[in-house]
Design a protein that fits this description.
Layout (H helix, E strand, L loop, with lengths): L16 H7 L16 H14 L9 E5 L5 E3 L2 E2 L6 H7 L10 E5 L6 E6 L8 H5 L5 H4 L5 H8 L2 E4 L14 E3 L5 H15 L1 H20 L6 H29 L4 H16 L2 E2 L4 E4 L20 E6 L1 E2 L8 E6 L6 H19 L8 H17 L7 H4 L31 H6 L7 E4 L2 E4 L13 E4 L2 E5 L4 E3 L8 H11 L2
Parallel strand pairs: 1-7, 5-6
Antiparallel strand pairs: 1-4, 2-3, 4-5, 8-11, 9-10, 10-12, 13-16, 14-15, 16-17
Length: about 500
């Protein structure tokens, strides 16, 4: 794996024998708490068994390597905040406190499959690493957990990272590695495959790597009870983050970068209750709301603006919410803003009404599009009728909502993205699936197909939906949605 121990030191540490002897002694022994089994451990054991039992033929007989991944460099000797790969977390249950560089190795050929987690354990105060290694030393980055504590918490066999010999030449033909978790390792591995096995077999193994990624993604379509509970908690924290946003609006209106006041208010809640934000917060005021992925958040917040906020708290378990609300900064929608808002809400409600087991995933989008087409045709924005626009060779209404209506949600904000596209789009809904419903209407400020008074209005409403055996539950229904409830919400939480 990528060796973070080889980073250049951040400062020059003393090297004399006298110093090494002095710094290695005189430390108090810290009592250790007995680590207890995490709640998630029973669920991850079931997930790993399902993973092995459902392996595609291309992966049978192979050792399967799922890295957590290394730190990622931001600039010079500064790293981005560490986050392990989602597939690793799904199979281990190890979340925000994962030790970078850890790797899960599963050998399915035995019964049961042999599963070993390799991790870098704690280093003693008598080692140079403790004080001299700025990348991983306890003096610099804090203590790491003991390996037996990791084993107790996760219910896994855990061995030191240096006990794993990576992939020897004799193991190359029957080892498959999750790509993109550790790019440098994957590149080195593929070069060795080519050199030792030849291009043809190296190509077959590279394809198997991607099949592994696909299989791991498709395993996450249906959430277990632990995951659903985590999603509920993430949504609750996100609701409180939106309350903080509304409370920040007076300050935001006074700042030339008011959108960043909004972004910061939510980020504070995410760090207090979770690991971080699940993705870059969109805080888009006025015409910025028409820019679908507006994350610069450097504009003002006008008193008559609509403020579109797309944000989610990621918990320490790494499950994230994904909520969008469009708020009238003044506390009241104008007549035109309300007209657009109610149309989007109708589209969201019609999409939700379509959700039940056995319905194709794409039917959610189709249901929302019927409403979007009907309203934009009624308003006179289309060159034909709504029925004509809904035909495959037309789609005029999509000018005002270019994005899809739904995506799966979980450990990633766009969960299961490595799944086969045809399966993602056309599969039937099953109980336990969690996804978004997020229709919108966006009338760009320079769009001459709409009257001037409509331009610069952007509205999106996004909720997180759980499929049940009887239908569906809107997990985020407690976050105000109707125009009347949103107006009351803004007034209630604005100082």
């Amino acid at each position: 794996m990528s060796d973070s121990t080889k980073k250049p030191p951040r400062s020059r540490t003393p090297e004399s024998a006298a110093f090494r002897e002095f710094i290695s002694s005189g430390w108090e022994d810290h009592p250790r708490r007995v680590a207890t089994r995490d709640e998630v451990a029973d669920f991850t054991a079931t997930r790993r068994a399902l993973f092995v039992d459902s392996l595609p033929e291309e992966l049978s007989g192979h050792t399967l390597v799922i890295p957590a991944g290394p730190e990622s460099r931001r600039s010079n000797d500064t790293d981005y905040p560490y986050r392990p790969h989602s597939a690793f977390t799904h199979l281990t249950g190890w979340g925000s406190d994962t030790v970078p560089g850890s790797v899960l190795v599963i050998t399915p050929g035995t019964s049961p499959a042999t599963t070993v987690l390799y991790a870098r354990g704690s280093a003693g105060r008598d080692t140079d690493e403790f004080y001299a290694n700025a990348a991983i030393g306890e003096f610099w980055t804090g203590p790491r957990p003991h390996l037996d504590d990791i084993a107790s918490r996760l219910g896994l066999q855990v061995q030191p990272l240096d006990a794993w010999s990576e992939v020897g030449d004799q193991d190359l033909p029957h080892t498959v590695v999750l790509p993109e978790a550790d790019d440098l390792f994957s590149v080195r591995l593929q070069h060795r495959r080519t050199a030792v096995l030849g291009e043809q077999q190296a190509g077959v193994l590279a394809e198997a790597d991607h099949i592994l990624a696909r299989h791991l993604a498709e395993l996450r379509f249906v959430k277990d009870d632990y995951e659903v509970d985590q999603m509920r908690l993430a949504i609750g924290a996100t609701h409180r983050g939106f309350n903080n946003i509304i409370g920040s609006l007076p300050d935001a209106a006074q700042s030339p970068r008011g959108e960043r006041v909004v972004e910061s208010a939510f980020a504070a809640r995410a760090r207090l209750e979770g690991n971080d934000v699940g993705y870059g917060t969109i805080a888009a005021s006025g015409p910025h709301a028409c820019i679908l992925h507006w994350v610069r958040n450097d504009g003002p917040v006008g008193s008559d603006d609509l403020l579109l906020v797309d944000a989610g708290v990621e918990l320490d378990s790494l499950y994230t919410a994904d909520i969008t609300r469009t708020l009238p900064v003044s506390g009241r929608f104008s007549a035109r803003q309300r007209q657009v808002y109610d149309a989007v809400l109708e589209a969201a409600d019609q999409a939700f009404a379509a959700v039940r087991p056995g319905v194709p995933f794409r039917a959610i989008h189709d249901a929302a599009m019927e409403v979007i087409a009907a309203h934009t045709a009624r308003w006179g924005f289309l060159p034909g009728s709504a029925d004509e626009s809904l035909k495959k060779d037309a789609g005029w209404h999509r000018r005002y909502m270019i994005h899809g209506t739904s995506h799966h949600l979980g450990l990633d904000v766009h969960d299961c993205q490595k799944a086969r596209r045809e399966l993602y789009v056309d599969q039937e809904l099953r109980p336990g699936m969690v996804f978004t419903i997020e229709p919108g209407l966006y009338f760009q400020p320079d769009d001459l197909t709409v009257p001037a008074e409509w331009r610069g209005i952007g509205v999106r409403i996004e909720d997180n939906i759980l499929v049940t055996k009887d239908g569906a539950i809107n997990l985020s229904a407690d976050i105000p949605r109707t125009a009347e409830d949103v107006e009351a919400w803004v007034k209630r939480h604005t100082p």
